[in-house]
Structures are given as structure tokens and as C-alpha cells.
Amino acid sequence: MSRNRVTSKNNLLPRPVWNLIPSAREKPKGEKTLAGTMLSIGECMVELMQAEGGLLRKGYAGDTFNAAYYARLFLPSDWSVAYCSAVGTDPVSDEMLAFMAEKGIDTGPVRKIEGRTPGLYMIHLKDGERSFSYWRSASAARLLADDPEHLRRAIEGADLILFSGITLAILSPDAVETLLAELRRAKAAGKRVVFDPNIRPRLWDDAERMRQTLTDGARAASLLMPSFDDEVTHFGDGSIAATIARYKALGVADVVVKDGEKGVTLAFEGSGESHVPATPVALVVDTTSAGDSFNGAFLSSLVAGDTPSEAAAFAARIAAGVIGHHGALVDKAKLVG
Hints:
Elements: H1 17-20, E1 36-41, E2 45-50, E3 56-61, H2 63-74, E4 79-84, E5 86-87, H3 91-102, E6 105-106, E7 111-112, E8 120-126, E9 129-135, H4 148-156, E10 160-164, H5 165-169, H6 173-188, E11 192-196, H7 207-219, E12 223-224, H8 228-235, H9 240-248, E13 254-258, E14 264-267, E15 273-276, H10 290-303, H11 308-322
Parallel strand pairs: 1-4, 1-10, 2-8, 4-6, 5-7, 10-11, 11-12, 12-13
Antiparallel strand pairs: 2-3, 8-9, 13-14, 14-15
């Protein structure tokens, strides 16, 4: 399952990246492959999962980090993937940064903050479904937008930017506005800004503020990747068409609505709605990173020159493979033949 390479004669990217870059099948002989940078913004946490013998297995995960990991697996090699967050100065933070680097993620945009630590969560699994216990009140990632100049440099250096509703939920209201202001600037400059609302009500102290902040996040994005069940529960959408229409009315060019085993509905600018079925899964083991892996694989496929429908089909296959294994991050060898 090879990925196409990205090509262009122009690396200024004044318009969304995959609208400019033809697939490798169209590459003129001798044309240089375009390098680019994907920046994912959010919180990576220490993950504890139950293992055999009553032991706990330690890992590192978080929605935007998981997506960055899967994007890195499948993006062309001349694209870099960077993570924008904050960690502490403790040994666990150092181990987390080393893990990111080992997986090919650029940690340059990660700030180190004295007196803070990474957040931690434990996964409880039952019949393939998961629940979580969290310890994140002292998480350094809550301060990831507290240095506006650092944040601006990170975003200005990227061509493709991903953030989520969890990213917004962990920040103070002032920090949310700092981040969204930079993302609006990036969108206006023609960068691809991708938002997964990934709604987690327990992270918000007020339901109305949650809905308003998520709506503001959508306005800053050019591509939305919501989960339909979340939109029904928290915005009252009666159909996928209603979800798409609501986000389009906010100025979002492209919408990808994920609907679990029912598949994905795409509404890209200049095209009508289309549906891509989910990939059947024989045995669901762990759904922890189903949506995150879809996001990362989908974006990598678009950047590589695939159509939205091709990208969705590829991402559905990857997500199906991911939920057949334990843990948020699954090795590439287990996902592709």
C-alpha cells in the first residue's frame, strides 16, 4: 500500500496544499519533489494500559499526537511532521520527547516549562470499548499557547496544521483566543488548517461555552473532521447534511463527517456530497485511536495527491487495522502488507 509523492514547481503554497500538488503519476521527469511541514497542536499524555499479570504498560498518546504519528507513517518522506505542545523539565517529559523523536516527530515546537509535568491517563477496556481515568491538572500542555511568539513561529513554519476540540478545552479562554487568532491568520494566508472537534464534555466547565468555543474553532479552519454522533448529541443535528451545512455556513471549505461503522461523508468545495463505506472489522480490540488514525492517514493521503474519496477509503482501512490492536499507536507493519 504505497503512498504517492507530492510534487510542485512552487513551494509558496498560496492556496490549500492538496489543491496545488499533483500526484506522482503526473510528475514531470526531473521535477523536484516539494517538501512541506505538518504541525499538530495539542496535548500528548502518558498512557497507562492494563497488561497481563496485573501489570500496567506505559505509552504516550493524545488525539493530535496520535494523528501526527499516523500522518508520519504515511506522508512522503520529504515532509516533516512537528508537534506543538508543552512539557515539564522532569524525567518523564524527557522520555516523552525522546519517544516522539524516535517516531520521527519534530519536537522543536514543544516548550519546556519548569514546575509542570505531562498529563497522565489510564485506559479501561471492556468488549473493545474504552473508558478513561485522567490526571492532568498540572499538565504543561495547558500552557502551550502562553508564549504567543513561540506559537506564531511554529504555525508560520507549517503548511498543514491540525488542532482539536481537546486542544481548545485544556486552554484558558485567553490562550484559546491567542491560538485561534494565529490559526485565522494561517487560514487567511492559504495554509490548510484542519479541526477535529473531538468533543469531550468532561473537559469543559460549561456546555454553552464549549459549543461557542468549538464554533469559533471551526471558523478558523478550512477542513472540518467531526464525528456525527458528537454533533447530534451536542449541536442537535438531525442529519449529516445538517452538520455539513452548519459548518459550511461558518466558512469551512471542506467537511469530512465520520460516522463509525456507517462510513464517512465528504463535502469538499466544488464537489457534491459523497459517501465512503467503513472497512469491515472482524474483531474490535481497542477503539482508542480510531478517529485519530483516520485523521492522520486521511491527511497524508490527500497530501500525497489522492482524491478525497481515495483518501477516505485509505484512512478507513488504516483505522480498521488500528482498532484490531491494543493501544493508540500501532506499528506500520501491522497495518499494511
